[in-house]
Specification:
By secondary structure, this protein is α+β, with helices and mostly antiparallel strands. The protein is built from 19 helices and 30 strands. It folds into 3 domains: about 190 residues, Aldehyde Oxidoreductase, domain 3 (Alpha-Beta Complex); about 325 residues, Aldehyde oxidase/xanthine dehydrogenase, molybdopterin binding domain (Aldehyde Oxidoreductase, domain 4); about 140 residues, Aldehyde Oxidoreductase, domain 4 (2-Layer Sandwich). Helix content is about 30%, strand content about 25%. The strands form 7 sheets. The chain has an 8-stranded mixed beta sheet with strand order 3-5-1-12-9-10-11-20. A 6-stranded mixed beta sheet has the order 7-15-14-13-8-30. The chain is globular, with a radius of gyration of 27 Å. The N and C termini lie far apart (about 55 Å).
């Protein structure tokens, strides 16, 4: 089944927030953000802005009727700054004017009196000064301190990964207007409607029942609208509530880049121990997460980094510690992978360094340490239904890894100005929100008297095709044509208390709720058919809109059955609730069973480096992915390709740069590069791994949103291997993204001092 939104997107008919017709009297909002990254806010000069043409009102923290707080995990983030400012671009005032241009012009007339304070941009500096968002956390397995004595080789090093801008096509925005009874309705470009509802109610001093959030679809999210859409929704709602007028707030691209958080940069230290036969015996890692100026989702992102610190390898002795460090940058936030890619990059870097020092291909170490059923993750969950080995073996055989490596070696021997590198990137990614309570969803299903069906869920469509999947689930369960099914906008009044569309769990959670509701409706209709037609209930079913009795057509079809049920006063509406079973996690012990299942896969990546210029191409990515039983293969393949390219961008070219004053320097597409058509590998070969799927996955089709991004890490190591094919004597620092500038520097760097080969250690 094709993505049902595709035709509307191509024809320009799909409605996004900025396409909503504006009501008469709508005011337009623009945000004044702090010009400094840290300081005491002594006052604001608003007189000139208030006199500007078209300006109706300027709101500050003093105008907030409720609580000036939108922090979710940690209450440390005011909606509008008061007393202090903590990052450049932090919202300080909101200008309301008759037109968008007038509001933006007035913002430029505002002056802030700020006494500067020291600015921190480095997470290690923040940790040294005790500037932590939450206390550090540590996951443990076995006893690394004593395991070092058994290691034939010990590798130590540092890995740095940068952030990543979400660069959704539709910028952050909201359109709010007052409703009867003192409430407010907000059209929000958000992945988390309930989060916007909850914090808006808090800011306005209202009950959540008076705040309605409505989302038709997003023009991209990638995690950037999971929590950070709250600010703009709450600001628009605040203005609408105070002025009793409709208010529209849509960020210009430069404001969006400057004011919003990104993927978290990490600085990490690692120590890896191996046996003589290349088994991983011990691993210690310390992560310094650059959280930015407020918690946002950083504690949860940090937690998932720990969950994925060992990627798809079994290491019997592990100690992984993570610090969430407060700096004076915009609060960093969710991004596809949610901390998992950062953890995986470090273990892959450690393995790469070990391979280089021992003179073996990294994939020899990778292959010998893949997870297997019965082993235990450092967080206590036992490995089950593991497809790590199967995906590796399938990729190795189908894509002929040994022969491919031979071809790369032959190319390098024959070419002086270009060198190739080949890398293997296996993945293991847990599916569920790691906060157990968030793994729940509801669905409201109406069958209308003409046989058409309307569905409301908490799922937000943002290009990933979840609406198509929900329609497919309903149609399959009810036995009807998908054309009969419509997905309503995501709305907190129809479906309340929703989890955000995130964690790759949206289709599973909401799809299971839809399936439960449709199953109950189908059973209800079958009971009615049995009564009406005097047939055995157990032998009834609906297939292709025909009612069958013991496999043979009965004297009714879908439309007649629905109409008959209505006239017999049978309920044609069902509200279902789904909670993923058997999930739990104890943070006091850092042990539990946090994931419904895991997704596995293996990618082979080839890159070619121009050793004169330092430029490179990612030539080919061939991968085997554990889809389970995919029922939308076109959509799922698109997610693989999109996630892969986004991961390639993070690893190779998307370089976020802030100066020491906390100012974003890569603040435009002229200075922040993202993959374009010419950056996509010439060959992207996706093989569907034959597996039975998992019962916790909707229709046994495994989640596919986040896992493929991690395949992009393979490009980093393929490029690094190409560099070392030219200069075997250099060991480039593990610093991502590996930009052409870094490649060129490595190609002509002084020779590295050979690292010592460790004898078995006697102490830790």
């Amino acid at each position: 089944m094709h993505n049902l939104d595709a035709a509307g997107h191509v024809r320009g008919e799909s409605q996004y927030l900025d396409d909503i017709p504006t009501q008469r009297g709508t005011l337009h909002a623009a945000v004044f953000g702090s010009p400094l990254a840290h300081g005491v806010l002594d006052g604001l000069s608003l007189q000139a802005a208030r006199r500007a043409p078209g300006v109706v009102r300027i709101l500050t923290a003093e105008d907030i009727p409720g609580e000036n707080q939108i922090g979710g995990i940690v209450p440390d983030e005011p909606l509008l700054a008061e007393g202090h400012v903590h990052f450049q671009g932090q919202p300080v005032a909101l200008v309301l004017a008759e037109t968008e241009a007038q509001a933006r012009a007035a913002v430029k007339l505002i002056e802030a009196d700020i006494t500067p304070l020291p600015v921190i941009t480095d997470p290690r500096v923040a940790q040294a000064q005790g500037e932590l968002i939450v206390p550090p956390r540590t996951f443990r397995l076995g006893d690394p301190a004593t395991a070092w004595a058994d290691c034939a080789h010990i590798i130590e090093g540092t890995a740095e990964n940068g952030g990543q801008e979400h660069l959704y096509i539709e910028t952050q925005g909201a359109y709010a207007y007052p409703t009867d009874g003192g409430g407010v309705r907000v059209h929000s470009s958000t992945q988390g409607p309930t989060a916007v509802q909850r914090h808006t109610a808090r800011v306005l001093g209202l009950g959540m029942h008076k705040v309605e959030i409505d989302v038709v679809r997003l023009g991209g999210g990638f995690g950037g609208k999971e929590d950070q859409a709250t600010t703009w929704g709450a600001l628009a709602a605040l203005a609408a509530h105070v002025l009793k007028k409709p208010v529209k707030l849509v960020l210009p691209r430069h404001d969006d880049l400057r004011m919003t958080g990104k993927r978290h940069p990490y600085s990490s230290d690692f120590k890896l121990g191996l046996s003589a036969d290349l088994k991983l015996l011990a691993y210690e890692v310390t992560f310094y997460q650059n959280a930015g100026a407020a918690a946002d989702l950083s504690p949860a992102v940090l937690e998932r980094t720990l969950f994925h610190a060992c990627n798809t390898y079994f290491i019997p002795n592990v100690r992984a510690t993570a610090y969430s460090c407060r700096t004076n940058l915009p609060p960093n936030t969710a991004f596809r992978g949610f901390g998992g890619p950062q953890g995986m990059f470090v273990i892959e870097s450690a393995i790469a360094q070990a391979a280089e020092q021992l003179g073996v291909p990294a994939y020899e170490i990778q292959r010998r340490n893949l997870l297997a059923d019965g082993q235990v993750f450092p967080y206590g969950q036992r490995v089950a239904d593991c497809n790590a080995g199967l995906s590796w073996q399938t990729a190795e055989q189908k894509f002929e890894l040994a022969g491919w490596q031979t071809e790369v070696d032959a190319f390098n021997a024959q070419n002086a100005t270009k060198k190739r590198g080949l890398a293997v990137m296996p993945i293991c990614f847990g599916i569920s929100f790691t906060k157990t309570a968030m793994n729940q969803a509801r669905a409201l299903v109406h069958i209308y008297t003409d046989g058409s069906v309307g569905i409301s869920t908490g799922a937000v469509e943002m290009g990933q095709g979840v609406n198509t999947k929900m329609i497919q689930v309903a149609a399959r369960t009810l036995g009807i044509n998908p054309n009969r099914v419509r997905i309503e906008a995501t709305n907190t009044t129809r479906v309340a208390n929703t989890s955000p569309s995130a964690a790759s769990a949206t289709a599973d959670l909401n799809g299971k709720a839809v399936e439960l509701a449709c199953r109950e409706l189908r059973a209800r209709l079958m009971r009615h058919a049995a009564d009406e037609l005097k047939l055995e209930y157990e032998g009834l079913e609906i297939r292709d809109e025909q009612v069958l009795a013991a496999g043979k057509p009965a004297e009714t079809d879908w439309e007649k059955l629905v109409s008959s049920a209505y006239w017999k006063r049978v309920s044609l509406t069902e509200n279902a609730h789904y909670a993923t079973p058997d999930l739990w996690f104890d943070q006091t012990e850092e042990k539990g069973h946090p994931f419904a299942y895991h997704v596995y896969g293996t990618a082979l990546v080839q890159a070619t480096v121009d050793v004169v210029r330092g430029t490179y191409d990612v030539d080919a990515v061939r991968l085997v992915h554990d889809f389970g039983q995919s029922f939308t293969p076109g959509i799922d393949r698109g997610q693989i390709e999109g996630g892969l390219v986004q991961g390639l961008g993070w690893m190779t070219m998307e370089e976020l740069i802030y100066n020491e004053q906390g100012r974003l320097l890569s603040n435009a597409l002229s200075t922040y590069k993202v993959p374009d058509l010419y950056s996509v590998p010439a060959v992207v070969d996706v093989e569907f791994l034959e597996t039975p799927g998992h019962p916790n996955a909707i229709l046994r089709a495994k989640a596919v949103g986040e896992p493929p991004l991690m395949y992009g890490l393979g490009a980093y190591f393929a490029i690094r291997n190409a560099v070392r094919a030219f200069r075997p004597d250099v060991r480039p620092a593990f610093s991502a993204p590996i930009t052409p500038e870094k490649v060129l520097t490595s190609l002509y760097a002084p020779a590295a001092v050979p690292a010592p080969r460790h004898e078995p250690a006697t102490t830790s």
